[in-house]
Amino acid sequence: MASATSSSANTAGGGAVPEVPELDPGDRLLCGPGPSNVHPRVRAAMQLPMLGHLDPDFWDILLDLVAALKAVYRRSDGLSLALSASGTSGMEAGIASLIEPGDTAIVAHAGFFGARIVEMANRYGANVVELNAPFGQIVTVDRLMDALRKNPDARLVSVVHAETSTGVGYPLQELGDALSRSGSDALLYADCVTSLGGQELEPAAWSVDYAYSCSQKALGCPPGISPVSLSERALERIRTRKHPAPFSFDFELLEKYWIERPITYHHTLPILQYYALYEGLRLCLQEGMEARWARHHDAGTYLQGGVRSRGFDLLADPELQLAQLTAVKVPEGIDGKEIQTKLLRRHGIEVGGGLGPTAPPIWRIGLMGVNANRETADRVLDALDDVLDR
Fold first, then answer.
1. Model confidence over 147-166: pLDDT tens digits?
2. Boundaries of every domain in the chain
3. Distance between the two ends of the chain, CA-based, in angstroms?
4. In what order do the strands lie in the sheet with 210-212?
5. β-strands 156-160, 162-163: how paired?
6. CATH class of the domain at 29-37+288-387
7. Domain 40-285 indexed as CATH 3.40.640.10
């Protein structure tokens, strides 16, 4: 392979031109917290001829994408579309659009991403009521509802449906039902980055007003796109804002591009990324959402059984354990990062470690998208046996 520092030609100004080596990233089995491996059909979709973002034939593709997103999100009303940005931007778009300076937001967190919501809400000037719990646990629905009774003016209640940093799931349906019974005007905001496509999720039936996700986990697409779904209540909140939302996250403007015809230009979309999402959503719907949820559940519980049989403990409370993301406690006396490196270099398998300065020593193993199967689980378990010399 050529060196990136060698030169073979000169620029017009006389400077050396580096000889850039041919790209060869290597093959990986991506079994960390995301991204997951991309389905061959999704990769093939990115080889299709690229249309312009103002091509009327691409506008038809956008409408088909909206229909697919509504089906995957199980929401026929409201607004569903995909932001040209990461899941973190989906997180921020909801905060920026649904709360204004001085609004009270109740935010529950017991992990890295819930804490990030707290930080974002603070940055947007919210009066944040912060509720936390130890890693592996959740802020219970009762605690959240008690906080709402003490803060009846709250405009937003936020939880992480599937906390990627700990492998913990949240009883989102139970919270949505409790909020509906309360008659509160607070909107329910849910991080669904690791749940969309990988576990049961019914935003409309569960009274979730804003759900956001990403493209690269259980949907099995490349990173860079954030599918979101808003209720009619959320849209009404946006329409009655006193201050305009940030331009990039203005859902009224985005709706005019995505859905209204003739369109109103908003931004230049990454076309090939949307082709990939299109095919990823088709795969979801062809498999059937219930079947896809069941496949992820089977793969995850199979992996967790293998992990426990080897004497490892899991971080999450067993009653709250996600299937698609498993946080394994690193045993005392073992260098967790060294094991991750051996898995990568010896077996080409990526698993994650703890996220953030306060995270306990863990391995985060994800079986998502095309990797959610027992065969992949066995590869991970066999590789762990090898690198641990068990």
1. 999 999 999 999 999 999 99
2. 29-37+288-387, 40-285
3. 37
4. 79-83, 226-230, 210-212, 187-191, 156-160, 104-109, 127-132
5. unpaired
6. alpha beta
7. yes
Neighbours of 347 (CB within 10 A): 17
pLDDT at 389: 83
Spatial neighbors of 20 by CB under 8 A, at least 6 apart, are 4
Tens-digit pLDDT profile for residues 239-266 = 999 999 999 999 999 999 999 999 999 9
* This model's pTM is above 0.85: yes
* Nearest by Cα to 163 from 204, 203, 108, 81: 108
* Omega within 30 of 0 (cis) for the link into 152: no
Residue 124 has pLDDT above 70, yes or no: yes
In terms of DSSP H, where are the helices of the chain? 40-45, 56-73, 87-98, 112-123, 141-150, 172-182, 232-239, 251-258, 271-287, 289-309, 336-347, 374-387
- Dump pLDDT digits (tens) for 44-93: 999 999 999 999 999 999 999 999 999 999 999 999 999 999 999 999 99
- Greatest CA span in the chain, whole angstroms? 73
